[in-house]
Specification:
By secondary structure, the protein is mostly helical. The chain contains four helices and no strands. It is flat.
């Protein structure tokens, strides 16, 4: 068993893609999405007519939580 692990470890290639390479790979994947898939994966307040081609991190509106927490402070 140890020999098999050593063989697999010697075959492993350490690779860390750059942010640009990751962006290009993601863009090529997104190009294959249908409009329905784009709508399903969209995160944001309103779906624009044409979705941007660059990935943006999801945003979460926390205003209601902050409002609720401000009422709990007891001030």
């Amino acid at each position: 068993m140890l020999e098999a692990l050593e063989t697999l470890d010697s075959l492993r290639i350490d690779y860390l893609p750059s942010p640009g390479e990751i962006d290009q790979a993601c863009a090529s994947i997104r190009e294959t999405w249908t409009m329905n898939e784009r709508r399903r994966r969209f995160v944001g307040p309103e779906l624009p007519d044409e979705l941007p081609r660059t990935w943006q991190p999801p945003t979460i509106d926390t205003s209601s939580f902050r409002l609720a927490m401000s009422g709990m402070s007891g001030d």
